[in-house]
Amino acid sequence: MHVLVLGAGQLARMMSLAGAPLNIKISAYDVGSQNIVHPLTQTVIGHGLDSAIETADVITAEFEHIPHDILAICEQSGKFLPSSEAIKAGGDRRIEKGLLDDAGVRNAKYYVINNREDFDRAIEHVGIPMVLKSALGGYDGKGQWRLKDPAQADSIWAEMAECIATTETQAIVAEEFVPFNREVSLVGARAKDGSVAVYPLAENVHTDGVLTLSTAIADTELQQQAKQMFTAVANKLNYVGVLALEFFDVDGTLLVNEIAPRVHNSGHWTQQGAETCQFENHLRAVCGLPLGSTKLIRSTSMINILGEDSLPQAVLEMDGCHVHWYGKEKRAGRKMGHINVCGDYNGELQRKLCALADSLDKDAFPAVHEFAANFSE
Ligand code: ATP
Ligand code: MG
């Protein structure tokens, strides 16, 4: 099997690593340069979408901000999974919100803003405090504003108006501010026959809008809610592949924040912590193979490595610590790799996270330090 991935970043890279044992070969298509590249070495192996499609058995995607004309061409080939509809829902918050409503899953109250009058109506409908997000192109908390006081409305509007003006199709989605206790996500797979397999929920810590720490958790009640919502969304899209749902946990009730129609950063822990990792399960699903077990095999956390290209020796020296570099050039704040840390039981994992805080830099790994500080209290 030969799978073409739209996007040539770390997710395509990790799909390639997971596909090799199954004889699934991955090529990556860099949407910007239009080059077909090897997902591990980045060596250019071809050029142009037509030839990329020609040689592939299956086409999938590692990100959702893909120009619609490219999606249309891929879909027309009959090889594209999940679907352009699913990718568009992940890339446009207006479509995403409509999908969540249609699937009947709880999400934050919202209002779409195209002009200043809409903004005033949004303030009335959604209320203050509110979170404002660009409909297109947002990631890692970028393209967002917080309105906490009506007095801020004029200055925020000036910035939002500029954002709306950049693209003809851009808009802003206003959302009620959700006073959540914590954030969790569910990564799961849906196969061509409609069967669904979900991983245990992950509890996620974000620092300045970017995921920094993600830990698989066991919570029967929340898991049940999350799986029901996952299945509703996946069925609505007739989805094939791995899909992630991000949630706010408000006193034990889950609200969907957003969806990602692809393998997800909060599912990287599955490489060491689950029977079958998310990358293998995505490939299994899109290649029409049976899904692999999503069972938790040991307590696992994932720590993102942001803006750093080296780690202290102590990390690799620690039992149950696995480092995954993405082979990228160092840039401030860039996702450079991640560490999966495993314990035989929760207490051991917690002890290891505390030990890691002793060797990892406090500014580069704030979530690990915060964890250790809370743990020792
Ligand atoms: P991602 O990198 O996950 O794609 P994103 O840029 O698409 O991020 P969101 O996940 O929508 O953005 O928001 C980023 C973070 O901002 C969330 O993880 C959450 O901490 C906070 N946030 C978003 N929406 C709300 C809300 N309605 N109420 C409170 N906090 C929110
Ligand atoms: Mg998010």
Automatic annotation (TrEMBL):
Q: Which domain of life is it from?
A: Bacteria
**Entries under InterPro entries matching the protein:** ATP-grasp, ATP-grasp_carboxylate-amine, ATP_grasp_subdomain_1, PreATP-grasp_dom_sf, PurK, PurK_C, PurT/PurK_preATP-grasp, Rudment_hybrid_motif
Q: Which residues bind ATP?
A: 93, 133, 138-144, 175-178, 183, 206, 257-258
Q: Return one GO MF term.
A: phosphoribosylaminoimidazole carboxylase activity
Q: Tell me its EC number(s), please.
A: 6.3.4.18
Catalysed reaction equations from the record: 5-amino-1-(5-phospho-beta-D-ribosyl)imidazole + hydrogencarbonate + ATP = 5-carboxyamino-1-(5-phospho-D-ribosyl)imidazole + ADP + phosphate + 2 H(+)
Query: Which keywords accompany this UniProt record?
Result: ATP-binding, Ligase, Nucleotide-binding, Purine biosynthesis
GO annotation, biological process: 'de novo' IMP biosynthetic process
Show where the ATP-grasp domain sits. 97-287
Pathway(s) where this gene product acts: Purine metabolism; IMP biosynthesis via de novo pathway; 5-amino-1-(5-phospho-D-ribosyl)imidazole-4-carboxylate from 5-amino-1-(5-phospho-D-ribosyl)imidazole (N5-CAIR route): step 1/2
Top EC class of this enzyme:
ligase
What is the annotated role of this protein in its UniProt record?
Catalyzes the ATP-dependent conversion of 5-aminoimidazole ribonucleotide (AIR) and HCO(3)- to N5-carboxyaminoimidazole ribonucleotide (N5-CAIR). Catalyzes the ATP-dependent conversion of 5-aminoimidazole ribonucleotide (AIR) and HCO(3)(-) to N5-carboxyaminoimidazole ribonucleotide (N5-CAIR).
Q: Which PANTHER family match?
A: PHOSPHORIBOSYLAMINOIMIDAZOLE CARBOXYLASE, PURINE BIOSYNTHESIS PROTEIN 6/7, PUR6/7
The annotated subunit structure for this chain is: Homodimer.
Report the protein name in the record.
N5-carboxyaminoimidazole ribonucleotide synthase
What species is given as this protein's source?
Vibrio ouci
> Upper lineage ranks?
Bacteria, Pseudomonadati, Pseudomonadota, Gammaproteobacteria, Vibrionales
**Which gene produces this protein?**
purK
